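batch_manifest entry 22 of 60
target: DoxX family protein
source organism: Edaphobacter paludis
requested by: lab member K.T.
priority: normal
notes from requester: please return tokens only, no post-processing; we will run our own comparison against the previous entry in this batch. if the run fails, retry once and flag.
--- input ---
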Amino acid sequence: MSRKAKNIAYWITTALVAFFIGSGGVAQVARVQGTVDGFVHILGYPLYFVTILGVWKVLGAIAILVPRFPRLKEWAYAGIFFDLTGAAASSASVGIYGAYGFHILAPLIIAGLTVASWALRPQSRTIGVLFPVTSDRPV
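--- output ---
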């Protein structure tokens, strides 16, 4: 994949993830009725948890969009991935699958986009090589 194609793919996946996570976070902070019903009445989470997750989602969406802060981005990507896989697991555990498994598949698809965005990051948005290979050490 060329550098330009990789950069375009990165921004498309990142924009989609930021949109889905950010808009969901805003709905949770604003306590939109459908969101509150799903979390509190169907999944059984306390109401304050909806607000906490909403704030974290908005901050995570901002973190993956802004330049610099590579360590913060790592944490944001991890948090978004955990949130989405947890959402799928929560829906599965209470037996709420939705039409064609929507409540399980949608978060897992967005989690896949999150992993793609993380993997496609430009070098300027990464922490760096964790374990550099040098010629002095055997591989």
